[in-house]
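Usage

Read records sequentially. Each one opens with the input sequence:
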Amino acid sequence: MSKYNKQRLYRTAEAAVLLGVHKDTLRRWEKEGKVRAVWMGRERRFPEEEIRRLLGESNPDAAVLYARVSGHDQKADLQRQVEALTDAYGSKFSEVVVLTDVGSGLSTNRRGLRKAMQMARERKIRAVAVTYPDRLTRFGFEYLEEYFNSFGVEVLVLNREEDRSPQQELVEDLLTIVTSFAGKLYGHRSHKVKKLKAEVKGALERLDTDNERKAAE
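and closes with the structure output:
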């Protein structure tokens, strides 16, 4: 299997824009052997490795191991994620950086995730590894994956099947949504937002208690 099968392949127009040259120039370089292309039917594709080589860029052999849980009472699960990622990928890179977050996977204000994105932009890493797709984000995983790929960073997922997250995770997600929309209506520092968030959390807790009672009957 070709090593290019696992990396992004750019169309001629896309590669030309990244390199800042005309499409005809890129085609000429390919004929002259200055850049290698992969032919797919009648169209050529340019591997990201070749693009980076021409740009004089090379991501170091380093990876981010990213773990996330929704609440502070789930620190044990956070540690299990880190251990699983270390066992799976720790020996595959010359350097690994562990980044963790405690918070909803819907939140855009996660320090660990933002750090991983910054390291990708600065081309300090070659991969980001997670145990499940929703540890990186609850929705829009493909968009984040595309973001990392655009900087030559591969997203490694230990388990592709959906993580069966605890109910607390779903509660935190709902509260994040409520807080976001309420903040747009009333302002993020408004007492109405805090009151609404407390009411929603209380209602969810009562629903959880009712469900447990019914299950026990």
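Summary fields computed downstream for this record:
- Residues 1-5 have pLDDT under 50 and may be disordered.
- The longest strand covers residues 62-69.
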